[in-house]
Automatic annotation (TrEMBL):
One of its GO terms (biological process) is fatty acid beta-oxidation. PANTHER family: ACYL-COENZYME A OXIDASE, PTHR43188:SF9. This is Acyl-CoA oxidase/dehydrogenase middle domain-containing protein. GO terms for molecular function: acyl-CoA dehydrogenase activity. It comes from Setaria viridis (Green bristlegrass). Its cofactor is FAD. The keyword Signal does not apply. Keywords: FAD, Flavoprotein, Oxidoreductase. Residues 135-277 form the Acyl-CoA dehydrogenase/oxidase C-terminal domain. Belongs to the acyl-CoA dehydrogenase family.
Length: 295
């Protein structure tokens, strides 16, 4: 939705946003490729101009909902300009194939897919006019990272809640686990992290609302909340002892669900580098001996 909202034409917004908002239409967003993850700005999926529209050829990887989405936003490289463009591809388009990635240990409720595009025809009206380079994609990231920054916060709150209850119910040495000072310290550390994460999430939203939020702000928020949440779920897993590794007690599930969040929407490292570039003026995505970054 954010991509069409930020980069779509008025006609596209009218056509797609209402049904997406009501979940009558399901979408997905395809940037990552098998050989271009963090280095997504170098992606190779090609968009070639043909009469009446475009042909898309290439592969995508990890695309959430792609196996059943009604519409797929595909980011591809314009063969004429060498810049990135965005396209709306409909479910069942000839030449489009999406296969579910198996054996994930986290976020198992989301189906992620490998996509193959073989001369998939997209009519001109389904090209997104607002995506003409990776800079335009970064505008989408700036907004989506605000949303993703809240996911580790919710997961951490759930883990705290589970642990708080568990420590009061389970007894060892004749006393509830909650009575042990070391366990209390861990609970308090978790709570402190959560309070700080909520404030960072709140501040991000305020900056966004006032139109002052930068890419560096949202990347910092996403990277930092996912790092702090890693500590929370790790402490939570520890507090449950052996039961902390059983999915039945949910903390282990949260532990596993956080890992992909740490790595998607830009990994912790890449988001740190986005903010690092903003505060120093120096881009360090590529080793110094290589050419200037296009991110
Ligand atoms: C569950 C899940 C859902 C996803 N959903 C989508 C989706 O819907 N749409 C989509 O387009 N993509 C999606 N992705 C892809 C996701 O955005 C990528 O996995 C992510 O960008 C990292 O790319 P990669 O996995 O290829 O890791 P790599 O880029 O291979 O990185 C491996 C490691 O090297 C580090 N690294 C890489 N480059 C640098 C650098 N310059 N400096 C320092 N460290 C570096 C990374 O931080 C990481 O730790 C999803 C991924 C997952 C796991």
């Amino acid at each position: 939705m954010p991509t069409i909202d930020l980069c779509g034409s008025e006609v596209q917004k009218q056509k797609y946003l209402p049904s997406l908002a009501e979940f009558k239409t399901l979408g997905c967003w395809a940037l990552t490729e098998p050989d271009y993850g963090s280095d997504a700005s170098s992606l190779r999926t090609a968009a070639t101009k043909v009469p009446g529209g475009w042909h898309l050829d290439g592969q995508k990887r990890w695309i959430g909902n792609s196996t059943f989405a009604d519409m797929l936003i595909i980011l591809a490289r314009n063969a004429d300009t060498n810049q990135l463009n965005g396209f709306i591809v409909k479910k069942g388009a000839p030449g489009l194939k999406a296969t579910k990635i198996e054996n994930k240990i986290g976020l198992r409720m989301v189906q992620n897919g490998d996509i193959v595009l073989n001369k998939v025809f997209v009519p001109e009206e389904d090209r997104l006019p607002g995506i003409n380079s990776f800079k335009d994609i970064n505008k989408v990231f700036a907004m989506s990272r605000v949303m993703v920054a809240w996911q580790p916060i919710g997961i951490s709150m759930g883990v705290f809640d589970m642990c708080h209850r568990y420590l009061k119910e389970r007894k060892q040495f004749g006393a509830p686990l909650a009575a042990f000072q070391l366990n209390q310290e861990k609970l308090v550390r978790m709570l402190g992290n959560i309070q700080a994460m909520v404030l960072v999430g709140w501040r991000l939203c305020k900056l966004y609302e006032s139109g002052k939020m930068t890419s560096g702000h949202s990347s910092l928020g996403k990277a930092w909340t996912s790092r702090k949440a890693r500590e929370v779920v790790s402490l939570g897993r520890e507090l449950l002892g052996g039961n902390g590794i059983l999915a039945d007690f949910l903390v282990a599930k949260a532990f596993c669900d956080l890992e992909p969040i740490f790595s998607y929407e830009g990994t912790y490292d890449i988001n740190s580098l986005v903010t690092g570039r903003e505060i120093t003026g120096v881009a360090s995505f590529k080793p110094a001996m290589l050419a200037k970054s296009r991110l």
